[in-house]
Amino acid sequence: MIRTPSPPVQPAAPHEMLVRHKYQVGETVYYTSPTFGRAAATGSYIVVKLLPSEGDDYQYRIKSSGEAFERVAKESQLDRA
Predict the structure, then answer these.
(1) Enclosing H/E stretch for 72
(2) Is residue 21 classed exposed, middle or buried when 0-12, 13-18 and 19+ CB atoms within 10 A define those classes?
């Protein structure tokens, strides 16, 4: 068996390692509840944490002043308020 050297592996460029969320912590967003599953209160929320993506859709932890708990929302469910 003949072995050939592998090409060197380049580390990812710094800009490729950054998560590219559309919204930032502290930003007010408008959440639209999904039409299936558990109904949620559609309205204004504050982004409290950036979460990893699920497929092609980034996720966020959001909080409404009218609710005692936080929700997880996909970026496709959010708009700028």
Answers:
(1) strand 70-74
(2) middle
